[in-house]
Amino acid sequence: MTKGGARKGAGRPKGQGKYGESTKAIRVPESKVKYISEIVSKGLYEIPLYTERVAAGFPSPADDYLEDKIDLNQYLVKHPASTFLVRASGNSMINAGIFPNDIL
Length: 104
Prior knowledge:
Shape: elongated
Number of strands: 2
Protein name: SOS-response transcriptional repressor
Region (Disordered): 1-23
Organism: Candidatus Actinomarina minuta
Strand order of the largest sheet: 1-2
Number of helices: 2
């Protein structure tokens, strides 16, 4: 009688896991595992970019023509290691449109 090894029909059926499809292991630096895990658990949020142009300064309904989706990290975060957010305190910047508790 043989022991161990692959057996026909053994294991989880393909596509039945957490993601509903086959998965593949990837190598990442140990220092990035937590970061990658957070991205996978939260997912990326993409904001729709419509083809319709709108006049600045006055709200206008947008058409239903979606041009593309944009990853804001790609456009707004040029140096991730030195990018952070803080909340404003005090009233000294109200004339500039920055109010207490605004995120900067």
